[in-house]
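Notebook B, p. 112. Complex prediction, attempt 2.
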Amino acid sequence: MEKLKKYVSVKDEDHFYHQGAVELLIFNFLLILTILTIWLFKNHRFRFLHETGGAMLYGLLMGLIIQYVTKSADDESGTVYECEKLKSGPSTLLINITNQVYEYQYKREISHHNVNGHQGNAMLQKMTFDPSIFFNILLPPIIFHAGYSLKKRHFFRNLGSILTYAFLGTAISCIVIGVIMYGFVKAMVHIGQLKQWEFHFTDCLFFGSLMSATDPVTVLAIFHELNVDTDLYTLLFGESVLNDAVAIVLTHSISIYSPKENPNAFDAAAFFQSVGNFLGIFAGSFAMGSSYAVVTALISFMHLTKFTKLCEFPMLETGLFFLLSWSAFLSAEAAGLTGIVAVLFCGVTQAHYTYNNLSPDSKMRTKQLFEFMNFLAENVIFCYMGLALFTFQNHIFNPLFIFGALVAVFVARASNIYPLSFLLNLGRKQKIPRNFQHMMMFSGLRGAIAFALAIRDTDSQPKQMMFTTALLIVFFTVWVFGGGTTPMLTWLQIRSVLVGVDPDEDLKPKAASQSASNLDKNTTKAESAWLFRIWYGFDHKYLKPLLTHTGPPLTSTLPGWCSPVARLLTSPSAYGDELKDGDTDYIIDNDELTENYERSVHTPAPAQDSTGSIQATGKEDIQEGDLGLGGYKLQLQHTACQPQKNSLA
Amino acid sequence: MEKLKKYVSVKDEDHFYHQGAVELLIFNFLLILTILTIWLFKNHRFRFLHETGGAMLYGLLMGLIIQYVTKSADDESGTVYECEKLKSGPSTLLINITNQVYEYQYKREISHHNVNGHQGNAMLQKMTFDPSIFFNILLPPIIFHAGYSLKKRHFFRNLGSILTYAFLGTAISCIVIGVIMYGFVKAMVHIGQLKQWEFHFTDCLFFGSLMSATDPVTVLAIFHELNVDTDLYTLLFGESVLNDAVAIVLTHSISIYSPKENPNAFDAAAFFQSVGNFLGIFAGSFAMGSSYAVVTALISFMHLTKFTKLCEFPMLETGLFFLLSWSAFLSAEAAGLTGIVAVLFCGVTQAHYTYNNLSPDSKMRTKQLFEFMNFLAENVIFCYMGLALFTFQNHIFNPLFIFGALVAVFVARASNIYPLSFLLNLGRKQKIPRNFQHMMMFSGLRGAIAFALAIRDTDSQPKQMMFTTALLIVFFTVWVFGGGTTPMLTWLQIRSVLVGVDPDEDLKPKAASQSASNLDKNTTKAESAWLFRIWYGFDHKYLKPLLTHTGPPLTSTLPGWCSPVARLLTSPSAYGDELKDGDTDYIIDNDELTENYERSVHTPAPAQDSTGSIQATGKEDIQEGDLGLGGYKLQLQHTACQPQKNSLA
């Protein structure tokens, strides 16, 4: 008897293992299908359905199949059991069922009206993974990659506009959606489509903030492929990256805003508390992310020069880089800040400082690793969004609400882009033309972040309705607007491969010489704000020499009385850099160009080789802002530790 | 009131998110510490504590800190609640507690006597992750990497010996441990240290099979670093890789062996069922793994030639490669086979066929990706083993049992290595010397697989005692034997950097010419068995040309009447290969050497470049079998799709 029971228990456990494998296998299968489809589309230059749209479509189909093929859950689920002895829900519950103790783990709290929704499909229920996997594992690599692959030159040239769109624009979008939805909800209550108590104004604002997170992954991938005008690309890229961070913090602040008495009345104290909260969290997350990156830069810097060669072990270097960057995210989350913001600025700072200290091998490894993780995570998320239409058990479809949200989203996008562009054009030397504005308006897709924010809280009926609506708006925008990007570009006559750009054009001026980048530098200085110039000077004179091997030596930038400290902190290789134009090295691309150029002049390499390496760098420069699939080639140096060798020579 | 409750619920949820982040952060922190320590040790050439030992030590310390610093769990846990209405444990349980419904998820079944053990530490409980994460996510990359980085030339040269050690040796080890432990348990019962009912002979055999999985990660990493004799390295590497697979399937078969009546009596029917089960699962898993690899090879082959260039998108290629290899594991698990065996042979087959079809960029990407994943997963596992001493709540320390197990493990290792070596030496031309045998005896560390097999089933008291014992034996062997590897090598006078090997020696003959490899080939043929020779001929004549771009064209190997089919299936580049010595290409290393050599002869590259590339390949050759940290350098071609270009030229 006892033997038999043990045997059954092992069988049971095996069953559970296989379940885990089956779910992962389904995701794998979806991803393989997606990759094969992408490859087919790329091959036939078919641009009306992007990979993200394809992944979503496959997810949807798979959900449909599972829904109708697999059997529904056992009868027990859906029944609520009473337990009078318990006063609150413990994290682990031990239950004695027919003389056998079972351990159960706390999953979540459920509203009473949702209980019936739980009589769903067992397979689909298992496919629903914890939102914390979304936030802790899938999102960080995507956001980090965005920061790490920022085209810094163009980004800083358009910094003012990007910040305006990201901060002011997202706030406008949030308020406009909130107000329109509140009006809509009031009207729906009036005609009897909705119960009065369901929506407060704060709920509408909450919906506004989560729907303000734009995600033009699809658009940017197409832009990249078609070599669309770099300024437009940078504006959109910069806006969408920062806008995510703003929307996340905004959503958090609104969910915390809780007026004392009437939830519809304005409570100044609570409002200012929320604003203070927003600023505090944003600044805190920024500081957390940057400081992790600075620590990484310092470690890699120390390893490279002062002690010994970490760069001889590219695996350790890559591992450290990866773990410290992920820790930036996790520490921020653990400290109650926003991990996404932290990891974004961590990525930017890593690219600015740490990247310069890495060995050539690690430079390539880190880039490829994050590129790959970004690619996988993105496709998993879009597959999952497709599946979520079926796996999520408590959808509330309200056609009127969805229609209202669609209208609100577009009005909000318009009142973000057009007025702000008008204001920005007053101050900009190089105006943002009309067709760029239309394209930006058109590129307001919603994606992973809006979905993730909506799924985080689906306890109440209004929140469930919001989630369903957000999911459908994501589908609509990704398929319709994502698919329409190529025709729209042609129609708006925007510079791209389709309209008047030679695909190799960008390659030539950059690969040609440094004089071009000097020209760029001057325009950058003229256009950027005074704040940026002060920061740039400080960064170039003190931070760069302290954290990397580029820039002038500290001994020449610090005042005389600091010279003993300065000499201690300056790496031997920095002295050699005094000779070259120090101003070009605040951009990775230029930096590498210079280094390569220098190397080809100073080292006795054959002539063919040196031109080869310059061309290769030029290519990489173009593909730096690469989000999805670009296959840039980095020329791997034969010697493992280039900077080290330089310093010894 | 309602508002307030919602607010509390959000807070509560936030709390749960942060918990997930904190746990991941702790692991990140442990890994960062480990990496910094490895770097320090490598720097000071300190070889007495290897990285795996270090990771385990940090895990142990962290567990100790958590144990004593954090507060213990809430009072609710540890109390068992009654539920008369339930007849069996459903997968999801809804419970109404003070008018609020909570959802609980099934975790596991608990024996009555373990209930008290659950009054443990909440933090530690959360750090205990599901064994299915171990099996589905952490183990596959390690095993795949082992297969993918197999030094095939040396592996096949010693194939007979490796198979003998792996299959016969593991079976011997399992039986010897089982018998000794059974005797020990009987004796303990006799002196009153153990209750009679607890251990059956099958339990002892189960323990024997899980303790037979050796894991010389530590030893091999040191061997690699010290350039130890390649034959010894290959023998150990091959044995440990295959031995894991054998031990896993053996454990499964024994757990299924359930004699009808008396569990101590021998039941022939059940025994043969278990043996059949063993063979069936092994063969099935092998077939599953290989067929996934063949599918991958076919896809990459098709993409490369027949249709268009998948190799233009190295990201897609790498993604497909990664997902299909992982799917091999998951499919096997889902089908009730052994994923580890499937993914191992998938790795070997991928390296043999698919690797040749990949673009140079993807070759490097896949290698680096799996190397990195292997590195991370390995360190996570060893950290986790350290933590498990504290996180696992139901340890049963029985000093006598542990002592007995330690003795049994060493007797079993000795009765595996020495008699089998003696038998093998009767047949081998190149004998396995005495000092090699001692070193193999000494390298019988236990590691991740033994731990994973033991943690899979800890429901009953005997299983818990086995788990505790296995964990302590892992600690002991990794620290004592891992640390003693270097002194042992010196003491046994084994060829290495320490004793009579010039670190660069291996480089010269390999880089020099092909004649050396021809010589090797001849000895290979002389030494290997007839079965292997038949397989080799079949592989070289039909499979290689069908699945890769190397080897002779099918038109010349297939009989005349097949020529239309053969012409269709042969890639254009294969015809060019007729000229070169077709026999060298069954080994990746040689293959690349030849290709590079050919390229340097056929293409008008500068002379410096060609010698450079041959040297680089030579280096890579040596570091191919690299398990841990080796930083091999692959020369990345400037042109993205080399084979494609060749075929067009």
